[in-house]
Amino acid sequence: MVETSLEKSTAAMKPGINRNPRLFNLAIIAVILATALLLAACGGGPGKYTDAENTVPASLLPRTPFLIDSPVPFSEVLEQDIEPYVITPLAMEPGQAFRFAVIMYACCVVAQLVEAEITWRVHPQEGASIDPSSGLLKVDPATSHGSVFKVSADVENGAYNPSTEVTVITREENPLVGSWREGDTGNVGELLFTADGQYAATWTMLEDYMDLFGTYELDTTTGAVELNYEWDRIETAGFSGTGSYRIEDDGSLVLEGICSGGPDSKLGTGEEVCTHRFLPRS
Predict the structure, then answer these.
(1) Can you tell me the distance from the alpha carbon of 210 to that of 190, in angstroms, rounded to the nearest whole number?
(2) Sheet architecture: strand order including 136-139
(3) Is the pLDDT confidence value at 16 over 50?
(4) Domains in the chain: ranges and CATH
């Protein structure tokens, strides 16, 4: 994969930012302004996936910035030779509903709705149902943890047939799945757990970049958790992934024994950080 100039500059810049809190704060402001300009250039503001019928919580919603006020006609998709995708949540829980949509990517990481005639299907049909016209998928309250459904979109009578899969989880079996944001206990911008046993951490939020990747295992009986390091985009000093987790009464996630140290901890103080408190993404 060819590394872009933005990736190179980010990789070179981030350790320096983490060593200087003032530079870090300025960088956050710059990222916010850049995101606003990016959305404006793409033709609108970010929309929400949730409405009266969409009941998936924000922590399970797609991470992609989403423009709902500037749909792209299907004819334009054909002209640009861009393959459309089905946008999907990180996971769903029994009894929840989510309106699937066909999107195309514009301005690198921003999703826009594709305006077309679409017929929706779900397989298997036991445990979930989908409205063939609107794409609203409803998971039955009795659907078991680990069930996987394939959601398919027939775009313009077979012109495109994108599909995706969504996994059903229960919080009793896996309370970690979703996107979490850390408070003042450390410097993790986002910690993401997927339903298929992978995790990713981001130190500084910039577009859709993520910095540390691996797999995880948890024991819901003992509260033990293991974050297995696989690779990082930004060097992670002093990482240790063996520890414990607990979910507090307010819904926050506390990780203990999961450590990082050196220049990337606590904005460069060098102090080892082994306790982290996260809130679900809202």
Answers:
(1) 8
(2) 97-99, 136-139, 128-130
(3) no
(4) 1-42+174-282 (2.40.128), 58-167 (2.60.40)
